[in-house]
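Recap from last week: sequence in, structure out.
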Amino acid sequence: MLRYVFIMSACCLSALVAACAPAGSGAASAGGSGREVGSAGAGGLPRFVSLNPCLDALLVEIAAPGQIRALSHYSRDPSSSSLARSAVRRYPVTGGTAEEVLALRPDIVLASSFIDPATKAALERAGLRVETFGSPKSIAESLSQIERVARLAGRGETGARLAERIAAGAPESSREPISTLLWQPGQIVPGEATLIGELMAESRLSSHSAARGLGQADHVALETLLADPPRLLLVAGDSAGQEHPLLGALEDTRVERLPANLLFCGGPTIMQVRARFAAIRASMTADRQTDAKAGAQ
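Predicted structure tokens:
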């Protein structure tokens, strides 16, 4: 009986693969080459399914709405996605199984480089093109990913405009540095050779952890932080230590929240991070000016 069930399951999946393969799939190209593909969707543009929240955000910004067959299920989770709820509601979502993706009949699947190999192989056997992306480690790497997605979508001008907005939004570099510790989920800190580390540096939020010899994913205990606090503490986690009332008792430290969904994605998320950093700096400057006026009276 078990052998019969296994054979029937395999046959059903094979039938689904064959039935859901896109038209002309025998000529489709798979992999991460970034080469342009032939048109298949409405308006002569390829249709996409995204399996990653960072790629969801890029696709929504770059592709025409009719090109997006589905976003990842992570897009509905505010802790994972930086997309506005109004944007997410416009599109279906997928759990990312091969069966679900094939039923959506996309031409190209955008996925993390950590996609399950079996899922990737099943999609490619069906003639789908699977383009994989790593997490960008710099602004330059993120801009390269924007260009790649735009090229795949046949939307070069739209991608170029997004890249220009990101480049034009770089903050001034002449401002006073602020000793800053970014306390990520799990009470770890980022390394300097990361996208969020670069965004901190360009906003003149100097790394308190790096100055003390800490690197990527090093743990900072509450006791360590209280003994040697930074001027600005950005809390992006919700562990017991990161919500401890003693943090509010730090007299010379500003404590601010940074949403965890802004930590790892590039593209339009870069602009959200910059806006948050700018708002924090502006608030700190205003408080300092208020204290100075009060002291002068």
